[in-house]
Amino acid sequence: MTSTRVPKTFLVRTEIDIILADLAEGDSVPSERELATRFGVARETVRQALRELLVEGRIRRQGRGTVVSRPKLTQPLSLRSYTEGAISFGRTPGRILVAWEDVEADAETAADLDVPLQTTVMHLERVLLADGDRVGLESTYLPLHRFSALRGTYDPTTSLYRAIRATGVELAAARERIETALATPREAALLECSTALPMLLLHRRSVDAAGAPIERVRSLYRGDRIAFEAKLGPENH
Question: Which CATH class is domain 73-229?
Answer without folding.
Answer: alpha beta
